């Protein structure tokens, strides 16, 4: 029976979907960085829905 | 809000062990978990019937993910506190959730004491924000 390396196949599919480029590493934030982002964002005005 | 009244919490996460952990943390703050959901759609449905003060929403959930649920909840309420939960806090997801109206964004892998402190701090900041908005 032929065996497939599923992990390798998935990686190749992802690379194909990305136009042949290696996937960009996602920047993972620390809780302190998240807090800074949350504090830096503009405050919402009362009664107004968030910007879409 | 009266000091005597417990903060009413809706908790949504598809992993039961995470719900147990967060429920324990939230209960230790004196908050009352009044509803739990294993997917975003159920969380949105429950929201209508239980009217929580605070929603803790996982990002990665089946049926309806946390970001879609966040947007649906913000359509319903501009005043409920919504804290997003995630294992890997990528910058783009945090950005999206804050832009969509999340009160705060929390990493699930924080030590319990820190998780507790962050939830409490986010809730108090939310109350202050509501007061300032009138």
How does the major sheet of chain B shape up?
A: 5 strands, parallel
**Uncertain parts of chain A:** 46-52
Proportion of beta-strand residues of chain B: 15-25%
Q: Which strand order spans the largest sheet of chain B, edge to edge or round the barrel? A: 2-1-3-4-5
Q: Radius of gyration of chain A in whole Å, from Cα?
A: 21 Å
Query: How much helicity do the residues of chain B have?
Result: 40-55%
Q: What general form of chain A does the structure show?
A: rod-shaped
Q: How many strand elements of chain B? A: 5
Helix content percent band of chain A: 40-55%
- The number of helical runs of chain A is 2
What's the order of the H and E elements of chain B? EHEHEHEHEH
Structure description:
With 52 residues, chain A is an all-alpha fold. Chain A has helices at 6-17, 31-40. Chain A has 2 helices and no strands. Chain A is rod-shaped. In chain A, 4% of the residues are buried. Residues 46-52 of chain A have low confidence and may be disordered. Chain B is an alpha/beta fold and 134 residues long. Chain B is built from 5 helices and 5 strands. Chain B has a 5-stranded parallel β-sheet with strand order 2-1-3-4-5, with helices on both faces. In chain B, helix 1 (16-28) packs across helix 5 (112-133) and helix 2 packs parallel to helix 3. The two termini of chain B are 13 Å apart. At the A-B interface, helix 2 of A face helix 4, strand 5 and helix 5 of B.
